[in-house]
Every structure is written in structure tokens, then in C-alpha cells.
Amino acid sequence: MGATPDLRSREPVVNTPQREVVMSEQAQAIFDEAMKLPIGERESLVSRLMRANDEEPLTDAELAAHDEAWAPEIRRRLAEVESGAVETIPWEEVDAQIRKLIGE
Asked: SS3 for 102?
């Protein structure tokens, strides 16, 4: 392995399945309003929504749809690692860089 990569200079990771989920008009309107909030309030809103998702289990149908949507992305990423197209970073290095970024 070469030099330790700088996490800040890496391309952003896009965590979305291959299929884009279309929002209802109501959800789109809420999103549009949320985007008008200051960044700190948006972060707080996202955090609360994510916690709410974690507290409510998915139905079997929702879980199956989730798994089906993510399966192609997981296969693609695994193939990239197995082929050597991407290089993984050991957790110890990532952890050290995160701690450096936050001043620990």
C-alpha cells in the first residue's frame, strides 16, 4: 500500500440503491421546506428522522423491497473490491484520520 489517503480529498460516497425512489407530492413539499432551514436544523431533522426509522421495524414487504433495491449496488461494490478496482482502507487508518480531524 502507498501513502495513507486523505479522507477529505476522496470522492463522496453515494449511498443510494440503483432505483430512485419517487417521493409523493407531500414528501417533496416537506423536503423543499426543509431545504430552506439552516444547515444545523437540517442536520437535526435528519438525525431525528433516522432515529425514527430505526425505532419502527420494516414490514416483510418493505424489507424485501429494500433488499432488492440494494442488491445490485452491493454486488457492484463487492466486484470492485474483488477485482482490485478499488482499494480498501484498514479501519485503523480511517479511525486515526477521523480522530485527527476532530482533534483527538
From this structure: coil
Q: Tell me: do 52 and 63 sit in the same domain.
A: no
19 Cα distance to chain centroid: 15
Same domain, 45 and 76: no
Q: CA 21 to CA 9: how far, in whole Å?
A: 29
Write down the pTM of the prediction.
0.48
Question: How many domains does one find in the chain?
Answer: 2
Q: If we measure between CA atoms, which residue out of 85, 82, 68 comes closest to residue 17?
A: 68
* 3-state SS assignment for residue 22: coil
Q: Chain centroid to CA 14: how far?
A: 6
pLDDT digits (tens, 9 = 90+) for 21-31: 678 999 999 99
Residues 80, 86: contact at Cβ < 8 Å?
yes
Mean pLDDT across 49-76: 89
